[in-house]
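Forwarding the complex inputs:
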Amino acid sequence: MIITAIKSFLSYVGGVFIILIEGVKNFHRAPKSYKLILSQILSMGISSLPIVILVSVFAGMVTAYQAVFQTKAYVPELYVGMGVAKAVLIELGPMLTGLIVAGRVSSSIAAELGTMRVTEQIDALEIMGIDPGRYLVMPRIFAGIIILPVLTIIAESIMIFGGMLVTVLDIDISLSIFLRGVRTNFVALELWGGLIKSVIFGFLIGLMGCYHGFRAKGGAEGVGQATTRAVVSSMVLILISDYFIAKWVF
Amino acid sequence: MIGLKGLWISFGDNEVLKGLDLNIEEGETVVVIGQSGCGKSVLLKTIVGLISPDEGEVIIDNISLKNISRRELYEIRKKIGMVFQSSALFDSLSVWENIGLGFIEHFRMPRKEIMRITREKLMLVGLPDVEDKYPAELSGGMKKRVGIARAIAMDPDFVLYDEPTAGLDPIIADRINNLIIELQKKLKITTIAVTHDIISAYKIADRIAMLYDGKIIFDGTPEEVQSTDNPYVQQFIAGEGEGPISGGI
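Prediction (whole assembly, two chains):
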C-alpha cells in the first residue's frame, strides 16, 4: 500500500518534471512562436477578465468594510486605506487572481489538451514532425507567466477601487483620507513581491493544465478527470508556493 | 523500405507483440489484418516511433529507430504520413491549416503557397472547396479524405492507414479504398494499412499479413489468403465465431 503510494507519487513528480522540461527547453523558441503565445495570452486574458473584475470589486469592498469594522474603535481613519492597499498588494490580489485563473484557465488547458490526447491529435502532431512541447506546452506556460501579472495588476487596481467605493460612499471616510492612507507607508517590495508571486502562479497554472491534459486517457471521462485534477492541483500548488514565496520575499 | 525485427511490446502484464517480424518493400501495399485489439494500431505507432518496443527494432530506409535522437526521429517522420482511425484532425484549425500545418511549422511558407498545395492535395482526394471549413462541419467520409490529404501533404515516402474504412458505409468505404489505390499508383507511395475489413484488404493489398497472438502468422498475396488452409486465416476471412482463434468478446 505504502509502496504503491510512493510509486504513484514519484510517477506524478516525474511526469510533471518531464512536461516542465518539454516546456522550458523550448522557451528560447518563444520569439519564433510568438503567434501561438499571443493567441494563448488573448484567450487566457479575455476569458478570465470578466470574472477577475467581478470578484475583485467585491473582494476590495469586503476588505475595506472588514478593515473599518475591525479597527474603527482604536485606529485612525487614515489607516483604512493603508490596510486595504497592503492586504491587496501583498496577498489578496495575486492569490485571488491566481485561484480564479486556475479555475478558469487550467481547466480549459487540460480539457483542450486532454481531448487532443484521446482523439490522437497529439500523436498526429508528433507524426508531422511537430514537437508538442514547442507547439502546445511552451506557449501555454509562457502565456500563463505573462498574463497572470497583467491580470493581477488589473485585479489589484479594481480591489483598491472597490475598497475606495465602500469607504467613501458607505462609511463616510473622505476620498482624500482614503487615498492618503493608500500612499502611507507604501513599500515597493510589497508590489513587486505580489507580482513575483503572480509570475510563479501563472507558471504553475500552465504547467498543471498541460501535465494533466497530456496524461488524459480513455475518453470523455478521462478528460473530465484530467480537468478536475488540473484545477485542484494548480490551486493546491498556488497555496503552498504562496507560503514559501512569502517567506523568501518578505 | 521498412523492416520490423523481433518486436516485443507489452503494457504491464499484457504482451501485445511477441517477436513480430515483417518487411515492407518500397512501393508495395501491405495490409495487416487481425482481430480488434490484437495490436494492429500498436504496430503502426511503433513504426512511427510513438511507442518504443521492449525488444527488437524498426528500420526505415536503413536507419534503425533504436537509440536515435528526437530530432533525427522527427526528420524520419517527415517521410511518413499517417491516417488515423478517427481522422485526428485538429478541431481548432480549418481544413487548409490542418493540411498545411507541416509547411507552416517547418518551412514558414507564405499562406498563398500553402493554399495552393492544400487545394492540389484536396483535388487529389476528390474534395474541392472545403479548405475554409472546420472539421466539425465535415462528414465522416470527408474527414477521412482530409486526413488522407494531410497525410500526403508533404509528399511522404510512406503512408500508414489505421482502419481506413472503419465507421464508413460500404459505398464510402469503397471510394476510400479506390482513393488509396489511386494515390499509391500516382504517387508511388509505400503503403501500410491495418484493418479488420477483409473486403478492403483484398481490394488494396499487394500482400496481406495476419497478426495473431503478437506475431505474423500468415503473409501472402490476396489470392494466397483466399486459398490458404491455415485455419486461423480461414476463420478470420470467413468471419466465423467458432474456430481456433480465441479471445475477444
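The helical segments of chain A are 2-24, 34-71, 78-118, 121-127, 132-170, 175-183, 188-214, 220-249.
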